[in-house]
Amino acid sequence: IEENIARLEKAIEDKTPNLKVAHTRLDVRKDRPNVELCRDPVQYRLIAEVNELNESAARLKERLVDAETSLKGLIRNQLDLEEDIQTKSNTLFVDEVECM
Q1: Neighbouring residues of 22: CB distance < 8 A, sequence distance ≥ 6
Q2: Average pLDDT, whole number, for the chain?
Q3: How far is CA 23 from CA 4, 29, 49, 67, in A?
Q4: Which runs of consecutive H residues, i.e. helices, occur in the chain?
Q5: Which of 5, 6, 21, 80 ranks highest by number of CB atoms within 10 Å?
């Protein structure tokens, strides 16, 4: 799970530059001199690309939260099991050494 979390964090990091490029292209396109607001296929595709990247990053972040939650649950279970093992080891010690 830890490797999965690292991969998800890397994937989110990798999306950031692409999203910045798409936003920059959109902003540059809006601020062109001597051109009124132009809604052509390129503009629509840039908007769609920004939306796709945002949705993809959001899905990755959701998966990251799920993975981190799972990891925390597993760590909690591990601690409970270790505590249980320690208790049983102490019980066996008392049974073998103290009672005999």
Answers
A1: 46, 49, 50, 53
A2: 89
A3: 29, 10, 9, 29
A4: 2-30, 41-93
A5: 5
Q: Say how far apart CA 21 and CA 33 lie, in whole Å.
A: 20
Sign of the alpha-carbon torsion through 17, 23, 26, 28: negative
pTM to 2 decimal places: 0.76
**Cβ–Cβ under 8 Å, residues 52 and 26:** no
Q: What pLDDT is attached to residue 4?
A: 92
- Does position 43 have pLDDT exceeding 90, yes or no? no
Euclidean distance between CA atoms 29 and 23, whole angstroms = 10
